[in-house]
Design brief:
This protein has 499 residues and is mainly α. It is built from 21 helices and no strands. The protein has one domain: Growth Hormone, Chain: A (Up-down Bundle). Helix 7 crosses helix 20 and helix 13 packs parallel to helix 20. It holds the Pfam family MFS_1. It is found in: Cell membrane.
Length: 499
């Protein structure tokens, strides 16, 4: 089979998007001099963890981790099963749409959930999100045509975006601050096993049971996981705000939803552009990027684009590191398989190296008592990402052993494991309780939009430069992502808010 085009959202792209920590990543307790109210402003963290006993908190955490684990397996399994699905349903022309539709819908779900969580608490958004996620799986698993399958994927993405944000808010409302590192660390660990064995398990299911069970089996496993979270959901009671404040929030939320729809259309067009050639490619790319760029200021906190001090810088860095990491990751399997002649399994193994590095970095960030302020973790992690990407660029030279590039990618993953938990902690620390949903939503939206743009830009760059520059085209693309990671390091000091 001919290698996929760089921008085609096949297994590599899907894994790159899915591996972005929209499902959470480990966080660390902040040093006392860098996390208190004097340093960050009002916090909705809550010292009591919703009044739940440690045993009940563990039960809730197990349910949350189980849901994250199933989501991770599903994301990787779908990427493995999609070629078979497209052939079975005679829908190769909708192959890209099946991925883009889910990603785009998740942005709408994130924005809706953010406002919903702030008004009613995380419970309604979590239940609705999981319900839509499971309904989408059932529709996709029973789909008689590719069009119905795509519709199921859109519903699934909408639900995914909703329950991701709800999980973040649930962590803030249920767990005291000193417990959050272990919760987020468990979230990150939940991605390791799926990253290693998920594609192989999905391949066995497709081959011996049938592709439909890749979708239909998950609901049977997800329901018990959600039920384990019920004690935490019952403990979180959100007082309704005053009518005037609620009405104002509703008006702002409705406007944000329309901008989220515009951004989702832009994401869909980005993936459509990747399947085109010539003038149509560039026209679709310009329109898509225009929609995303115009929408972003309405979906993120004011000052994010200029990386203003405090929360805007946190949200901005989340987007920068997502763009740097994802924009590189999607090209690595292509470089190793198409240019270096490695088998698909060997080329895909580089993603496992990154996942392992990510988990190690998250564990170190969550367990070690470094005594550093948050900003230093962001700074060091961003430099590790930049250095790791620079090391992987050496793979463009045929004389460089592949293992060297894979180890370099582990370093980049290590940096991500340090940066993302810190950004999660900072977002909650800088968020009053009635804004935890909106700010958690902004964090996820920044991640998703930046990753989608990075996929489009680096993929299109490679496609445009490869004929003229050959392997050097990869180096140019990796150089762009290195610069993006260094920009995150430059902004890192602005995440520390003085007393």
């Amino acid at each position: 089979m001919e290698p996929p085009r760089p921008l085609a959202p096949e297994a590599d792209v899907a894994e790159a998007i899915a591996d972005s920590p929209a499902f959470g990543s480990p966080a660390a307790a902040a040093p006392p001099d860098d996390t208190g109210p004097d340093a960050h402003g009002p916090s909705g963290s809550g010292p009591t963890g919703g009044g739940l006993s440690p045993a009940t908190q563990r039960t809730v955490m197990i349910g949350m981790v189980a849901l994250v684990l199933l989501g991770a397996f599903e994301a990787l399994a779908v990427a493995t099963a999609m070629p078979t699905v497209a052939q079975a349903l005679d829908g190769l022309t909708l192959y890209a749409v099946a991925f883009a539709g889910s990603i785009a819908a998740s942005v709408v779900g994130m924005v809706a959930a953010g406002r919903w969580c702030d008004r009613f608490g995380p419970s309604p958004s979590l239940w609705a999100g999981v319900g839509l996620f499971l309904a989408g799986l059932v529709v996709a698993g029973l789909a008689p045509t590719m069009e119905v399958f795509v519709a199921g994927r859109v519903v699934q993405g909408l639900g995914t975006g909703m329950y991701i944000v709800a999980l973040y808010v649930l962590v803030a409302r249920v767990f005291p601050e000193d417990r959050r590192p272990s919760v987020f660390a468990a979230f990150a660990a939940a991605w390791v096993v799926p990253s290693i064995v998920g594609p192989a398990v999905a391949g066995l299911v497709v081959e011996h049971v049938g592709w439909r069970w890749v979708f239909l089996a998950v609901p049977f496993l997800a329901v018990p996981a959600v039920l384990m979270m019920r004690p935490g959901l019952r403990a979180v009671v959100q007082d309704r705000r005053a009518p005037d404040a609620a009405d104002a929030a509703d008006r702002g939320g409705n406007a944000a939803l329309w901008w989220a729809v515009a951004a989702a259309v832009g994401i869909g067009l980005l993936h459509f552009a990747g399947q085109q050639e010539g003038v149509l490619l560039y026209a679709a790319l310009v329109v898509a990027l225009g929609l995303v760029v115009v929408s972003v200021p309405h979906l993120l906190p004011r000052g994010t684009v200029r990386a203003a001090r405090g929360l805007p810088s946190v949200i901005a860095i989340r987007g920068l590191v997502a763009a740097a990491f994802t924009g590189t990751e999607v090209l690595l399997p292509l470089l190793l398989s198409h240019e270096r002649g490695l088998s698909p399994a060997q080329a895909g193994g580089v993603l496992t190296f990154g996942a392992i590095g990510w988990s190690v970095g998250a564990w170190l960030r969550g367990k070690a008592h470094w005594g550093w302020p948050h900003s230093r973790f962001v700074l060091v992690g961003s430099f590790l990402i930049a250095g790791g990407i620079a090391g992987t660029a050496l793979l463009a030279w045929p004389s460089v052993p592949p293992i060297l590039g894979m180890l370099s990618w582990t370093v980049a993953g290590l940096g991500m494991g340090m940066v993302h938990p810190t950004l999660s902690v900072l977002t909650l620390a800088l968020s009053p309780e009635d804004q935890q949903g909106a700010n958690s939503s902004a964090l996820q939206v920044s991640d998703a939009l930046s990753a989608a743009i990075a996929l489009a830009v680096t993929g299109s760059m490679l496609w445009a430069l490869h004929d003229a520059f050959g392997l050097l085209a990869y180096v140019i693309c990796f150089g762009v992502t290195v610069v993006i990671a260094l920009l995150a390091a430059f902004v890192a000091p602005r995440t520390r808010v003085p007393a």
